[in-house]
Specification:
The protein is of the alpha/beta class. It contains 20 helices and 10 strands. The strands form 2 sheets. A 6-stranded mixed sheet has the order 6-7-8-3-9-10, sandwiched between helices. Helix 7 packs antiparallel against helix 9 and helix 15 crosses helix 17.
Length: about 625
């Protein structure tokens, strides 16, 4: 998994050699335990929904008026059956003089409940949308601020599922169902209050079926809650595989694995469908069961009320009122039954969203951290040890120095730890022991922003965003001018090919720069690094994916970029580090050789073997 980052001090760590934790094991001698993503706890429905509602309630200017208006609307609704019963009693007694005022009052209540309910619902919806905006922003901000160890444990597709599927479930509940749920609960409360004020005995009769409805809802919840959690997990797995397949489509085609990919996606989709079917079926029984219980309640109320009215306990208007109240109870309960499905899905989605929001970055500014005071770029590693997974060390006792302006080459077998050394220099991970300093300052005592803005990187896999060429260049430094960007392209040998694009510097690139060749993308990332005007450089296999002619153009740009700057060049092609002031040969996490190109060849050690393997039979092999 790679993390899209800027060349201006942001290092993409997706290199083939790195012994980083993976979801799938890779054949490397120093790789940590394959890290399956952390087991997710079963969601606490009440806590997660309460937390979601908390986001809405913080929108006080909208939420409070919405609740007040909904209470007024619900109160009018609850009083209508009593008023209707009074009108019936008036008709029965022949007191026509009271009929007109009561009818006007009933009309006024109807208008009031409609207006207040509509306005209250609109305000609640706006409050929910603002809350969702806050939640989305918190999620994105947290993802941007987390340490790279967080991403090591999770494929990008699974994280995308949290941003899409899980937030969609939350969105649906908060946008469409939250207001309905609040109104239904208030309607139940106000209706019960009005029923008690009319007649306690009839209220008790009306509530006889309530335990059955509550039991039904609770039983469904115990089944449906875990089912919806499993559904979110299965959808996350399916989305993760889909994202991986889409980004690796060329590899799938190259190896003729289209049918296998389709079969795997079909299996994942079928598992999601099966779990989804169980989740939906468990909730489909809710409404029919509740309706049956409510109809039984209405029949019981009509029968008992009629008997009591005949015996003179109250007028028949009260029987009508309680029959209406029984029906009025059905509406909110049915709404709550429907909302419950969305609530379960939202609780499962919220649990996964909150897991990310609640995660804490591991690499942070230490108390009292100060901006790095750059004084030339003297880098020193002193007995540095590092491990991705505690107890499985991948760097051992590394000590070296880079003087200001020097070019330091790093080479060695795949998986030796070359890029890991650069990753800890930029503090994407913290070391286990030892000390790393720049100009005498321990990097742990420096602010992360100042450290990473000091060091720019040009990577093996250049990343360009789906934007214009000019905006990709300006990404490196806020305030960069068009003239500075164009000059940087000239220095990086990119200007000529940019001018052949349909709209020159205003050409919109495809995602990740897919519309350009690998060499063209690399030239633009070099130009972007020049725009950043870095003080130090890391070049990670910057020319490994290009042809010889393009490599020469890129090397010219890199030479201009490195001039006067302390630079670290990670290389498999040893020709790119021949002129280094010092070459470090890394093997199994240790610096096993160091020196100049000629000195290392004379030692006839690992560097000599690597060099002869690459250049035997070529003119360079005669050195």
């Amino acid at each position: 998994m790679s993390v899209p980052t800027s060349d201006a001090g942001e290092l993409d760590l997706a290199t083939a050699e790195e012994p980083r934790p993976q979801l799938k094991p890779e054949p490397t001698d120093v790789a940590p335990d394959p890290g399956a993503q952390p087991a997710e706890a079963e969601p606490d429905i009440r806590a997660n929904i309460g937390r979601l509602i908390g986001y809405v309630s913080r929108q006080r200017s909208l939420f409070v008026p919405a609740v007040v208006l909904i209470i007024i609307s619900v109160s009018c609704t609850a009083y209508v059956p009593t008023l209707t019963g009074d009108i019936i009693d008036i008709i029965g007694t022949g007191q026509e003089g009271e009929l007109g005022p009561r009818t006007l009052l009933l009309l006024g209540l109807a208008i009031t409940l409609f207006v207040t309910g509509w306005i209250g619902g609109r305000l609640m919806q706006r409050a929910s949308q603002r809350a969702l905006r806050t939640l989305r922003q918190e999620l994105f901000d947290r993802v941007q601020g987390l340490s790279l160890s967080f991403f090591d444990k999770r494929p990008i597709g699974e994280l995308m599922s949290r941003v899409t599927n899980d937030l969609t479930a939350v969105d649906q509940f908060m946008s469409q169902n939250l207001g309905q749920m609040i109104q239904a609960i208030l309607t139940l409360v106000m209706t019960l209050v009005m029923m008690l004020l009319n007649d306690v005995l009839m209220t008790v009769v009306a509530l006889l079926v309530m335990p059955l409805m509550v039991f039904t809802a609770l039983a469904v919840g115990r089944i449906a809650g875990p089912a919806f959690q499993s559904l979110q997990l299965e959808l996350g797995g399916a989305n993760g595989y889909a994202e991986e397949s889409l980004t690796g489509d060329k590899t799938i085609m190259a190896y003729g694995q289209e049918d296998a990919a389709i079969e795997q996606m079909t299996e994942l989709s079928e598992r999601a469908r099966a779990v989804g079917s169980r989740a939906m079926f468990s909730t489909m029984v809710t409404s029919p069961a509740v309706v049956v219980a409510q109809n039984i309640g209405t029949a019981v109320i009509a029968m008992v009320g009629s008997v009591l009215a005949i015996n003179g306990r109250f007028e028949f208007g009260t029987v009508v009122a309680f029959t209406v109240y029984s029906t009025q109870l059905q509406g909110p309960i049915q709404i709550l039954g429907r909302v419950y499905t969305a609530l379960l899905s939202a609780a499962a989605g919220a649990a996964r969203v909150f897991e990310v929001i609640d995660d804490v970055p591991i690499v942070v500014n230490l108390p009292g951290a100060k901006p790095l005071d750059f004084r030339g770029g003297h880098v020193a590693f002193d007995r540095v040890d590092f491990s991705y997974v505690p107890g499985r060390r991948v760097l051992h006792d590394n000590t070296f120095e880079a003087l200001p302006g020097q070019k330091i080459g790093l080479c060695g077998p795949t998986g030796a730890g070359k890029s890991t050394i650069m990753n800890i220099l930029t503090r994407y991970y913290d070391i286990d022991s030892g000390r790393i300093s720049i100009d005498g300052q321990d990097i742990r005592d420096c602010t992360l922003d100042s450290l990473r803005m000091t060091i720019s990187a040009v990577l093996q896999e250049p990343l360009l965003f789906s934007d214009t060429v000019m905006m990709n260049l300006k990404y490196a430094r806020e305030g960069a001018t068009d003239e500075e960007c164009i000059e940087a392209c000239r220095q990086a040998n990119a200007h000529d090919f940019v001018m052949t694009l349909p709209h020159g510097y205003d050409t919109v690139l495809a995602e990740r720069g897919a519309s350009l060749s690998a060499g063209q993308r690399q030239m633009l990332t070099i130009a972007r690094a020049m725009v950043a005007a870095p003080k130090m450089l890391i070049l990670d296999e910057a020319t490994s994916n290009v042809d010889t002619r393009t490599e020469k153009l890129i090397q010219q740009g890199l030479t201009r970029l490195m001039h006067g700057r302390t630079s670290f060049v990670i290389a498999h092609r040893l020709s790119t580090i021949r002129d280094s002031d010092q070459i470090l040969v890394i093997d199994a996490g240790r610096i096993v050789e160091r020196g100049t190109h000629e000195g290392l060849l004379a030692q006839r050690g690992l560097y000599h073997r690597l060099y002869m393997t690459q250049f035997r039979g070529s003119p360079m092999g005669t050195d």
